[in-house]
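#onboarding

Welcome to the new folks! Below is a worked example of what a typical request in this channel looks like: someone posts a single protein sequence, and someone else replies with the predicted structure as tokens. Don't worry about understanding the tokens yet, we'll cover that in week two.

Example request:
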Amino acid sequence: MQGSASKVIRAVADAESTLMKTSFLSYYISMYNTVNENLGYKDAPVTVDEIYDFLQDLKHEAGEHVPDIEKEDIAFSFHILNMLGVCKSA
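Example response:
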């Protein structure tokens, strides 16, 4: 990995907010993947739209606190998680 993820994060404006969103998203992306596995979709790649819709459902139907996250934030989080080798996305 050689620090490539840290270089990307440092280059982003408002790194603290970006790190918070990426941490939040990594948890919920993991949760989404676990639900997919339990439904029989093991190793299915996940899309930005699926995660965005999942977060909207959490926010509006489950009443969970969800930070202001745009699709671009999700795409960036996928990029970081893919660089780290812990997630694959479509």
